[in-house]
């Protein structure tokens, strides 16, 4: 477990990546979303572990990448911010195969007790070549993730629909209030 590993999760297209970039610009260690990296890799090499082709294979790969990411930054002494986590990937896998996946890993590979969620925000949501689903699918995923993190005992902190700077300030203020 690392009490310095902070997850940004929530609605796809809700501004997580921009928030992560802002935190990185402020000098914090950041880890990019596994899913985006996998999609780029799969598209570049003609792979099929893509959420719109084989969600289960994609989710399994995302779990591997997210767990490897944790190992890569385990020596950090300051906050490390993750754009999504293995929990997000395991939730997708449970959705794809309808089998329990979360609980066996949930007590071993912990993150900081609060997870920061970007809520559905239709005004900024957009699809792109790496995000081919629509807003309704993103909202359904958001709801599954809220339940998944709650099942594992995390406290979900929903971020305001505000500027990226205000969101970063809110995250850092919440972290400062609990240290």
From TrEMBL:
Domain NadR/Ttd14 AAA intervals: 6-167
Gene3D superfamilies: P-loop containing nucleotide triphosphate hydrolases
SUPFAM superfamilies: P-loop containing nucleoside triphosphate hydrolases (SSF52540)
InterPro entries: NadR/Ttd14_AAA_dom (IPR038727), P-loop_NTPase (IPR027417)
Protein's recorded name: AAA family ATPase
